[in-house]
């Protein structure tokens, strides 16, 4: 049977937002236009050469019920959390954090940086794992598999391409997270499991998808169902993230950094935070 190409379902223009202690971001998921793209709860792109846009960072804050994935393109961020991790992540590094029942962390850009750029994605956890033990996977750039096919450079953060397995594994939503760079007049295609939610985030140049649908950077491109995503570049490069995952199909209740299934569970999270029982030693 012929592979069915995934057509473009929608193209989303990122919205400017201010988060943390005053960081300017471009947000494409968790907006009025696109609240949730099951299992993806939020997608932010930060990128600036003006420290005033990011230096205030993200001081200590809680998360529950989700996973957060930070992928850096430029600059360095110092981080520490309530399960004892501390360090810094820089260009090309990934931090995959499973908040589970509760984690507190801070992410502060280093003051001497001339540029900060990267992405944060929130992946939902199914009801049965929302209160799982927090976990943290730190993946330095050197451990992220990278390969080139017909001039196209691919970094495999999670999932697999041509038998190359990604650096981050054992994530419930079975996500695939690729960083793809297509040179001018190049092309790329990638099979994606049928039924999985899939999107591309174009952040440099312009990408051209099925039926000549064009996405100049920055745009988030949502695909309909099918077997394979096909992308090409015309006179300029196309650099984008290609992200997919298994939808959960469960109700969500969200309140800032907490994403649960019911309102009562959100209220419990707020009570735990107030009572000092949010972070549990075990
Ligand atoms: Co956070």
Notes on the protein architecture:
By secondary structure, the protein is mainly β. The chain has a single domain (8-275), classed as Jelly Rolls (Sandwich). Helices cover 5% and strands 52% of the residues. The chain contains 1 helix and 25 strands. The chain has one helix spanning 263-275, and strands spanning 8-12, 15-19, 23-29, 40-48, 58-63, 66-74, 76-81, 86-90, 94-98, 103-109, 116-124, 135-139, 146-149, 152-158, 160-161, 164-165, 176-182, 187-191, 197-209, 213-216, 219-223, 228-232, 238-245, 253-255, 258-260. The strands form 6 sheets. Strands 1, 13, 14, 17, 19, 20, 21 and 23 form an 8-stranded antiparallel sheet that branches. The chain has a 7-stranded antiparallel sheet with strand order 2-3-4-11-6-9-12, with no helix packed on it. It has a 4-stranded antiparallel sheet with strand order 5-10-7-8, with no helix packed on it. β24 (253-255) and β25 (258-260) form a beta hairpin. The longest helix has 13 residues, at 263-275. The N and C termini lie far apart (51 Å). It binds cobalt (II) ion (CO). Cobalt (II) ion (CO) binds at residues 58, 61, 63, 68, 105.
């Amino acid at each position: 049977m012929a592979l069915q190409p995934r057509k473009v379902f929608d193209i989303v223009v990122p919205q400017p937002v201010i988060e943390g202690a005053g960081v300017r971001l471009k947000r494409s998921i968790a907006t009025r236009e696109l609240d949730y793209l099951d299992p993806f709860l939020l997608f932010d792109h930060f990128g600036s050469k003006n420290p005033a846009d990011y230096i205030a960072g993200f001081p200590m804050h809680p998360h529950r019920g989700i996973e957060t994935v930070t992928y850096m393109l430029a600059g360095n961020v110092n981080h520490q959390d309530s399960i004892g991790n501390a360090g810094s992540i820089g260009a090309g590094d990934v931090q995959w954090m499973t908040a589970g029942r509760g984690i507190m962390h801070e992410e502060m850009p280093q003051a001497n940086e001339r540029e900060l750029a990267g992405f944060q994605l929130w992946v939902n956890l199914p009801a049965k794992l929302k209160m799982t033990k927090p976990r943290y996977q730190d993946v330095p750039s050197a451990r992220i598999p990278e390969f080139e096919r017909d001039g196209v450079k691919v970094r495999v953060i999670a999932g697999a391409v041509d038998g190359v397995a990604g650096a981050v594994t054992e994530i419930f939503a079975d996500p695939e997270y690729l960083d793809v760079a297509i040179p001018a007049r190049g092309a790329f295609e990638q099979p994606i499991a049928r039924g999985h939610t899939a999107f591309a985030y174009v952040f440099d140049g312009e990408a051209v998808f099925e039926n000549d649908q064009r996405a100049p950077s920055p745009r988030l491109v949502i695909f309909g169902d099918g077997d394979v995503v096909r992308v090409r570049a015309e006179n300029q490069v196309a650099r984008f993230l290609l992200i997919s995952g298994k939808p959960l199909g469960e109700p969500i209740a969200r309140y800032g950094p907490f994403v649960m299934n019911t309102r009562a569970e959100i209220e419990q999270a707020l009570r735990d935070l107030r009572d000092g029982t949010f972070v549990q030693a075990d």
